[in-house]
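Extended Data, record CASP8 and FADD-like apoptosis regulator b
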Amino acid sequence: QSADITGELSTDECKRISYLCGALDLDKFSTDPRGMLQSVLCQMRMDYVFLMELILKIKRYDLLREVLSTNKSAVEGLLKNGHSVSEYRVLMADVSEDMDTENLKSLTFLLRAEMRFLNVYLQSFLDVVVELEKLDQLSSEKMDLIEHCLRSIHRADLAKKISHYQQTDLIWLPCLTTWHFKCFIFQ
């Protein structure tokens, strides 16, 4: 079924799902996005519920219905007992969806000092996120830099999402439930 799904996804959607799965080599997606995603999915040996969650997170409800024979509310019901996809990664993927080309240019300009040694072409916010993660400048616990940069490029709406995540995450940290343990697996 994952082969049927990858055939229906755009390059950006393939990239988003791979990021949600924890992939840090998104720059290889430009040559064969579907093949790379298929490789990531095979390496994970994921279960059916995880696949449904990934499709839900990228908001492809048509694929839930037509390929996986379910719907949004059924999957949300299954996930009430716990998520497998990192909330941090979902947040970064959602912020990426809200960034346009001008925002990306402004952001990369602000981050040029942190990324001065990189010889990569950054096509999306997720590319920036992955490179900052590799440099240990961004993680689920270390988000101040990206929040500050988003405020500097006048995207206070996105900075508020990050701030809200940080405040919510601090509430959950003392209580390491099974749900939280599952989330940390994919960060």
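Summary. The chain has a mean pLDDT of 82.
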